[in-house]
Amino acid sequence: MSLWLFVLVILLTALLVSFYVRYFPVITLQGWIARTWVDNVPRVSALALHPDDGLYATQEFYPPRGTLLHIQKNGERQLLLGNLGKPDGLVAFGDGIAVGQESGIAPVLWYRQGKVEELFTGNAVEALAAWENRYLYTVEDRKGGRLLRYDHTTKRLDVLYADGEGMEGITLCPDGTLYFSEKKQGKVYRFNEINPPEPVIEGLKKPNYLLCTPEGLWITEDATAHARVLLFAGGEISVIASHLRSAQTIIEAGERRMLVAEQGRNRILELIREE
């Protein structure tokens, strides 16, 4: 084979692989369907339900370009906050929404009724979880990252764990069980305040956001290609959706309906369980 033909084959192969990675459709488990809820949201990352049935959503740009948006069901969007530093976590808290920032040392913000309050400061804060509108939990995405608990009543910030390796997701189950993920390690841990965190799932592809529901533990993967949405229940993992690109937050959005921020395709994906 001549050199120019060899180079042409390599280039065509690279183009085909790129096309496959970018445009291959999402595949869902039997009984589920996937469709786009809203498109063209660059760097979409964190999601939370808005009281008007729309969404809060963040765009994970470096400062000063990071934003908090309100996205309505018809796709219209409104800028609520700008000048954020990689806003990568949202959770409903009290009568507003808590917003984390991953770009170094930065405050966790509380947005409500058009006003912003600084709650506490972290270093590379990722996802957030809330408990009874009093406690906020978060993890830091860095070597030696901390698992933090903020008590809004006393304004106290406690370090529950301080030996993380790039922690990403965090979730609280209805019974109070806390899980967090370490993306580079490919692991999901169960936390308690007595013993070291216990790995409960290993061998994942960049596990990212977590969500605990009565059905089980939902996990997204932040792989740039072939990312998945997983459900861990009864000691078994089900692949609910695959062939995603950089899946971020997953939330419940009604009965038999989940929403996933698919950052690699700049969209919010809707996963619906068929009756």
From TrEMBL:
**Can you say what this protein is called?**
YncE family protein
Q: Which organism is it from?
A: Kistimonas scapharcae
